[in-house]
Design goal:
alpha/beta, globular
């Protein structure tokens, strides 16, 4: 859903002046309603590739019994953030996920055009995020994976009020998303999106520590973030730390 890059980094324009009025109603509805859409075949194949990469990663390191930690970078785009996370978490496999074959091809080209190789703990897959998350949650609930950190950097905000239910936190997938990781971090250049995401997370996980703040310092870790910073836009960060896993 990371589809915002243009030649100019534009501010998010919306006919919505504050958090979506039916947010709580939708979040509570989806918390009680299983999401049963069939999982796309290509995502099942991509997930199997990621699963094999993770298994091989820990086999080579003679790791002990599961659960094995896995870092997720959802909507990784051209993969810059995945490389950043791979260096930040050198002892864990980092899976960069994007639905766009074009963006992932750019990620591969970017790595091949530099002196350094792709870090041994980084792996890209083309998949539908909402399907990949459902499969990943099965691994988590089975005690095979643990996800210490899940990155959601600059997802498409779907800023029109009529598009609100396409936002992750107003979609039936949100209960799955919020259960996946010990720490989930959202970054966005739209304050309302950050406010909504934090509010939805607090509704579903009342015991979680949910913080929202401006991003003021640090080197850009995605192409979006670089564009937005260069355009002097305000960037927002929501961090959700679950007190315990279900």
């Amino acid at each position: 859903m990371s589809d915002q890059i243009h030649s100019q980094a534009r501010e998010v324009l919306s006919n919505q002046e504050g958090p979506f009025k039916d947010l709580e109603k939708l979040v509570r509805k989806y918390a009680c309603t299983p999401y049963l859409r069939p999982i796309a075949d290509h995502t099942r194949l991509a997930f199997a590739d990621a699963e094999q990469f993770i298994a091989d990663f820990y086999t080579k390191r003679h790791a002990g019994s599961a659960p094995h930690p896995v870092i997720l970078d959802s909507g990784c785009g051209t993969g810059e953030s995945t490389l950043h996370l791979a260096h930040q978490f050198p002892g864990y496999p980092v899976i960069g996920i994007d639905k766009s074959a074009v963006r992932l091809e750019k990620a591969s080209q970017s790595v091949s055009s530099t002196i350094r190789d792709l870090p041994s703990n980084a792996f890209y897959v083309r998949a539908e995020l909402i399907d990949f998350w459902r499969l990943a949650l099965e691994k988590v609930t089975a005690g095979q994976w643990a996800i210490p950190y899940h990155a959601l950097y600059y997802p498409n905000p779907w800023p029109k009020q009529s598009e609100a239910t396409r936002r992750f936190h107003l979609h039936p997938i949100f209960p799955t998303l919020i259960r996946l990781a010990l720490t989930t971090e959202l970054r966005t250049n739209w304050e309302i999106y950050a406010q909504e995401f934090a509010q939805a997370a607090s509704l579903l996980s009342p015991n979680a520590n949910v913080t929202i703040q401006l991003i003021k310092e640090g080197e850009p870790i995605t192409a979006f973030e670089r564009k937005y910073k260069n355009a002097c836009q305000q960037l927002w960060q929501v961090i959700i730390v679950n007190s315990q896993k279900d």
